[in-house]
Amino acid sequence: MCGFNGIYAFNNTFCEPQKFDVLRDTLKFRGPDEGGTFSDEKVLLGHRRLAIIDLASGLQPMWDSTQKIIIAFNGEIYNFLDLREELITLGVSFSTNSDTEVILEAYKTWGIVECLKKLEGMFAFALWDTTRQELFVARDRYGEKPLYYTQSEQGLYFGSELKALKEFYDSEKISKRALNLYFSLTYIPAPYTIYEDVFKLEAGSYLKVSENKVKQHFYYNALTEFEEANKDQIQSYDEAKKELHQLLFDSIKQRMISEVPLGSFLSGGIDSSIVSAIMAKVSPTPIKTFSIGFKEKAYDESERAALVAKHIGSEHTLHVLDHHDLLTVVDDTIAYFDEPFGDSSAIPSMMVAKKAKEKVTVVLTGDCADELFGGYEKYLAGYYASKYSKVPSIVRKPFESIVNIVPHNNRTNQKLRQVKKVIKSAKLNESERYQSLCSLGFNNQEKDKLLLEDLNVDSDIQRYFNEKSGDELSKTFYSDLKLVLEGDMLTKVDRACMINSLEARVPFLDSKIVHFSARLPHQFKIQGTNKKKILKETFADLLPPETMAFSKKGFGLPLRLWFQTELKDELLNLLDPQKIDQQGFLNTNYIQKILKEHFNNEENHSSKLWLLFIFQKWLKNNQLEN
Residues 185, 191, 193, 196: is their CA dihedral positive or negative? Predict the structure, then answer.
């Protein structure tokens, strides 16, 4: 795992080499082992390396054998050994054992599009063909690895993180669209960033730069794949289980290739338990597993993780935290994301990555199983909405009146929020319901009161849902892959691990498993309210029986408690009316209303206050608060 930055100069005007290397070294967490730089009259490439495979000869930027093509690469290609053998049969010879050299030779042999289509892995890279004078900047199918870029009259600038581009954009030009998306979704999805003139390269695409012209191309079309896969449904449940078993075992075996110590995150949930159990099955020695526990039992899954660890015989490391421990890393975590990111589970994710790094350099995770196999409550929204709609209105109306006057407190909060979601979603059409369930921050009516310049971003949030044909669940699965995974889940995992120089690999996101999941009938994934049915039943024999009945917890934070205690003074300071008015983004009166309702226990606004807290901290960190 690594990080890189680069420049393609339109007029042969570069930044100073020393300044460029300083920007390259802002990526040192991604690549602590060594750094390298390439330059000619047109292109500058910088690279920071975290050595995982071919420790001795995988240095970058790396030349091909002809010294005509050079690459800066971040990621892992899991099928590089298969591609290497295929290329050798075509007469290609190799001087290293690295996956980086395989990309170079694949490009020379098949061209950029076929090369990208053949790569199974997580990656972003910049490849400069000095003979053709063409630069290619590419990102993997699903957006596991980040890639940012900006353009000016002087050139194209790109890098693995925003901090590597900070000299080349106007940091005071805040994107109003991105701001609206952040306060709706809690994150900013591609192609947007918080800055008006900086963009995330969309998953499955690449930039071709030639003769001072930049054009984006897509080599992977998820919509076409999902439409075709949905029409080619697997009929036999037993055959589907056999195929899933083989696919996940194969994916995990590929992702266990490493020349450095390797382990897995084991939260105690079904997904990470399955990944860890398979790793233990195929590993000749006990695997290392890592989890964090919480002294607050409402957030703790450590007993579940310990049960699985004992069952699979792993060398398990548990680090028990209280909310004071988590508070110590809040500032560093917020700062590392470079732009507002409101998924609070990034904090505990960073802590478990920090502890894992003490013993390993690579971890496998259980991420993305929920999106592929139906693990979230939101996938039952249509089911519950349909049930509730059948309740006579003479019963619904008084019930809703009672719900609206029940106060939010520690006893009622969770159930009350769930009931309110069902009531609300039952009144919406499919597209509106999807947006409502995705918008974990402020809804449109609330956002209209919060932002001084409110933009309608419905089309951005509903974009993928509406372009997909089929029923509500088919559209939801597809849109979550395109929108939620790239913008939230994969971003969180990447940053939480990279700040600790730890590489995270996601076996469920193998392209063959993604395709397979799209071919499954809904009833194979969700039966009634039984979520991830096929996943649990396929791998039940690998886990303790009681794990199948575990309810989902996830990494939660005691935000309500924090804002009543340790973070209260800082929150109120950040949301000071005079400060808010000077900034010119938010409505002071509405924020004061939220604070009053929250502290009077009229409503639980913890998640909304967290988004405001993050945004204000980001403004302060970037000296944009006045």
Answer: negative
CB-based burial of residue 600 (10 Å sphere; 0-12 exposed, 13-18 middle, 19+ buried)? exposed
Q: Is the dihedral angle over the CA atoms 139, 143, 148, 149 positive or is it negative?
A: positive
Angle at 497 between CA 176 and CA 611, to 5 degrees: 30
- Nearest CA to 362 among 240, 464, 497, 232? 497
Q: Is the pLDDT of residue 626 over 60?
A: no
Q: pLDDT, tens digit, for every residue of 95-143?
A: 999 999 999 999 999 999 999 999 999 999 999 999 999 999 999 999 9
| Cα end-to-end distance, the chain, whole Å | 37
Q: DSSP assignment of 329-342, as one string?
A: THHHHHHHTSS---
Side-chain half-sphere of 421: how many Cα atoms within 13 Å? 22
Rounded Cα distance between 400 and 332, Å, is 42
CA-closest candidate to residue 505, choices 371, 372, 365, 368:
365
Closest by Cα among 190, 128, 201 to 158: 201
Q: Report cis status (omega within 30 of 0) of the bond before 17.
A: no
Per-residue pLDDT of 281-312, as tens digits, reads 999 999 999 998 877 676 677 889 999 999 99
**Total residue count of the chain as it appears in this document:** 626
Q: What is the pLDDT of residues 419-475, one digit of tens each?
A: 777 777 778 899 999 999 999 999 999 999 999 988 899 999 999 999 999 999 999
* 431 SS3 class: helix
Residue spans of beta strands (DSSP E) within 141-284: 148-151, 155-159, 198-200, 205-210, 213-218, 262-265
Q: What is the pLDDT of residue 31?
A: 80
Beta bridge partners of 8: 43, 156
Q: What gap in Å lies between CA 360 and CA 366, rounded to an integer?
A: 17
- Are the beta carbons of 558 and 269 closer than 8 angstroms? no
Residue 550 structure tokens:
């575990």
Taking 70 as the threshold, does the pLDDT of residue 77 lie above it? yes
Cβ contacts of 308 within 8 Å, gap of 6 or more: 266, 268, 273, 276, 277, 543, 544, 547
Q: Where are the alpha helices (DSSP H) in 10-98?
A: 17-24, 80-89
Nearest to 2 by CA among 129, 99, 108: 99
Rounded Cα distance between 312 and 286, Å, is: 9
Please answer whether residues 8 and 135 qualify as being in contact, where contact means their C-beta atoms are separated by less than 8 angstroms. Answer: yes
Rounded to 5 degrees, φ, ψ at 156 are -105, 135
Neighbouring C-alpha atoms within 13 Å toward the C-beta of 1: 26
What radius of gyration do the chain's Cα atoms show? 24
Spatial CA neighbour of 219 closest among 134, 84, 107, 70 = 107
pLDDT per residue as tens digits for the range 533-545? 999 999 999 999 8
Per DSSP, which regions of 87-147 are E strands?
121-129, 134-139
Tokens standing for 62? 């790396």
CA nearest 273: which of 285, 294, 287? 287
CA distances from 626 to 171, 472, 587 (A): 13, 44, 15
Q: Which of 626, 581, 546, 624 is nearest to 195 (CA)?
A: 624
In eight-state DSSP terms, residue 216 is E
